[in-house]
Each structure stands twice: as C-alpha cells, then as structure tokens.
Design goal:
Length: 348
C-alpha cells in the first residue's frame, strides 16, 4: 500500500498530466451517459426484409434462424407484428413458382411479390412497402440479368448483359408500382438501372414513386444465407462483373454520383459491417441524400450462430452493431434483427 501511495504521489507531481479535463465525468452515472449519447436507435430506423413464396404457412431458413419464407398471408401477419413494434417499412423478396431464363413471374400481375404488395397495402395502408428489383431470384441460371449466349461475341459466354437487362428491370419496377409498392429498389448493379427505372416509372404514371438504389453493392461472401432464403445462387460463375470489388472505395463514390444524377431518391451501401468506411464516405459526399445500410444475411447468421453457442450476448451485440451502423452515417438499416431489436428497444 505504501508503495502504491508513493507511486500515486510521484505520478501526480512529476508528470504533466492535466486533470482539468476528465472525460470520465460525463460517464459517471447512467443518467449522464444517456444525456450525452450522440446516436439514438429507434424501431423507425429499421426496414424489415420479408421473403414471400407461393403456398401456405411459413418455413424457417436453415442458415437464418428466426427468419422465414412466408406465404402471402403470413407476410401480412409478419408486417402487422412489425408495425405494432413501430417498424415503418418492409422490403419484399419473392420466390417464384417457376424459374426460367428471363424470370417471367418477376413482372407478372399475379407474381408472388405483386400479390404480397397488394395484400400488405390492403391490410396495412400505412406500412411503407419496398421491393427488391432484380432478376436472380426469378431466373433459372440465378443471375441478375440476361445472359450472353453468343449474341455478343466480344463479351464472354455467360456474361450478364447490361442494356438488355435494363428493359426487364424497368418492367419489374413498373409492375411493382402498379401493384402498389411505395418504393422500388433496383439491386443488380446494372449500369443505368436507376435511369431506366426512373423513366419507365415516369412514362407509366408513377412519377411520384421513389427509387432506393442499391448504389454500392459489393461482390460479398456475406450474401450466402440470403441465397438459401431466396433460392438464388448463381448456377455458374459469380457476380463479380457487376457487383463491386471489396477493395474499392473511390469507385463507390463514382457509383453514388451516377445514381444521384440518374434520379435516385435514396442511396444504399451493402453489406454494412465490413464497409462502415464506405458508408461514412458516402454520407460525407452526399449529406443531402437519405442513406440506407443493408446489414446482410451473413452478418445476421454470424451473430445468431455465436449466440446459439453462448459465445456472445445476442441483444448487446446486435444493439451495438446497429448503433455503429447509424453512427457511421446510415439513416435507415435493412436488418433481419429488426423485430428483435425493436422489441429490445421498447423494453429498455
Ligand atoms: C439481389 C439481392 C441479394 C441480396 C439482396 N438483394 C443477393 C445477391 O446479390 O446475391 C442479399 C442480401 C443479404 O445477404 O441479406 N436480389
């Protein structure tokens, strides 16, 4: 004890520590900590993803415990539970009855997503219904666009064609808007997708339907569980000719600048956790734009797996993660934790 006293005296006397400033003062009590908290988390920050399929009932996705493929009726039930927790938006993904090279159900009046949009909007008019506009869930090859089978000899076989794909994406977006979607979200990283969707909506009388662009979407290994959920893995090759290289960030700024110029109303960065710097950079470059982060399936699966083993405190880790995503610059977060997090926040 005497030795510690001696050290204490000497440290204070001989060092030039200035204790006028004590950062810990504002951490002393829970009330003070709450008072100076910079980032708040609320159920209205979350967008809840829903997977809809034909048939009855619901089945859990193996690699995403707590997340289900839902019938239309179950999707309405799930959306209502979300609304009761204060969640204001859902993002719909469809699993079609049949797949083909073009993905015909994607823009069919009675497609699964179109049915789900109508049912949710009928029962819950206040819920903001967003739809993913892409081809990979609907095509038999699992790619996000039409495939080069020889019509473009200067491009590789199997290459995801750009301009031809735009026509399909435009049709899908209009068909979602016709069914009553509040926001359409092109997700394929096809050049010109925002402009194509914007002009198709405009000439179809949907000039007031906003576009949330998956502006910065990386070719990420964190989408694995989603591809189980949506049954959409590519049957050959990968998505590297359209999704971005994880090593790049300046290119992300180029992507968002193009989307803003093409008329995007909201921007997205995806995935979230390995890309918080990208989120921050996009936030700095476009302070005027609503910015969404997608906390993707693989990020969800990692937390669920560790929590199931008792290795992490799920609630604390999820709230810390979502806070980090907001702090980095997201206004809204698409997250499979939405319902749990909303429940935990309500109980705090
Ligand atoms: C494409 C799409 C994907 C995801 C959202 N939209 C899959 C992909 O690009 O392969 C992944 C989302 C997630 O992992 O949670 N329709």
């Amino acid at each position: 004890m005497a030795l510690l006293d001696l050290i204490h005296q000497n440290v204070l006397r001989t060092s030039n520590i200035n204790l006028t400033h004590r950062a810990r003062r504002l951490r002393t009590t829970p009330a003070l900590r709450a008072l100076v908290r910079e980032t708040g988390l609320n159920a209205r920050d979350f967008i809840h993803p829903l997977f809809v399929r034909h048939g009855e009932g619901r089945n859990e996705i193996r690699s995403m415990p707590g997340i289900f493929q839902l019938s239309v009726e179950e999707a309405v039930f799930e959306a209502r539970s979300a609304a009761e927790l204060g969640i204001r938006a859902v993002m719909l993904f469809g699993i079609p009855a049949e797949k083909d090279p073009i993905g015909l159900e994607n823009f069919s009046h009675d497609g699964i997503v179109q049915q789900a949009i109508r049912a949710i909007k009928r029962e819950l008019p206040e819920m903001v219904v967003m739809t993913d506009v892409c081809m990979c869930e609907y095509t038999d090859h699992g790619h996000c666009g039409l495939i080069n089978t020889g019509s473009h000899p200067n491009l590789p076989e199997g290459y995801v064609l750009n301009d031809e794909t735009l026509d399909i994406l435009a049709r899908v977006a209009v068909s979602h808007a016709e069914a009553g979607a509040d926001v359409v979200a092109p997700s394929g990283m096809i050049d010109g997708m925002v402009g194509a969707v914007r002009s198709a909506l405009d000439i179809s009388g949907f000039e007031h339907t906003p576009i949330l662009s998956y502006s910065v979407k990386y070719a990420s290994a964190f989408y694995g569980p989603f591809r189980d959920a949506a049954q959409s893995p590519p049957q050959f090759g990968d998505r590297k000719t359209h999704q971005m290289d994880p090593a790049n960030v300046r290119e992300a700024l180029r992507e968002v600048a193009l989307d803003v110029a093409e008329g995007a109303d909201m921007l997205m960065v995806k995935p979230a956790l390995a890309y918080l710097d990208v989120l921050y950079r996009v936030r700095q470059a476009h302070p005027e734009m609503p910015l969404v982060a997608y906390n993707v399936s693989g990020e969800y699966a990692m937390v669920k797996a560790a929590a199931a083993n008792g290795w992490l405190d799920e609630q604390k880790v999820v709230l810390e993660t979502l806070t980090g995503i907001k702090r980095a610059g997201a206004d809204l977060i698409i997250t499979y934790h939405a319902m749990d997090a909303a429940r935990w926040l309500a109980a705090q």
